[in-house]
Amino acid sequence: MPTTAPALSLPPLISTLIAPLPKTPMEVLLTRFTRRLVARRPELLQRLGAVVKVPIAIVPDDMPHAFLLSLDNDKSSVEICDKDQITRAKAVVRAPFLVLLGLLDGTYDADALFFTRDLKIEGRTEHVLALRNTLEEADLTPGEFFGLSGRPAQWMNGFSGTLLDKAKRLAGNGSRNANSMEQDGQR
Amino acid sequence: MSKEEKQMELVCPAGTPAALRAAADAGADAIYCGFANETNARNFPGLNFSPTELADGVAYAHAKGAKVLVAINTFARAGSIGLWRQAVDDAAACNADAIIAADLAVLEHAAEKHPDRRLHLSVQAAANSPEAIRFYSDTFGVKRVVLPRVFSVPEIAALNREIDVETEVFVFGGLCVMTEGRCSLSSYATGKSPNLTGVCSPPDHVDYREDNAGRLLAQLGGFTIDSFEKNTPAGYPTLCKGQFSAEGRTGYLFEDPVSLNAFELLEDLAKAGVTALKIEGRQRGKAYIAGVVSGFRRAVDGLATGTDAGPAIAALKTFSEGGRQTSGSYKKTWR
Ligand code: SF4
Question: ipTM for the complex?
Answer without folding.
Answer: 0.81
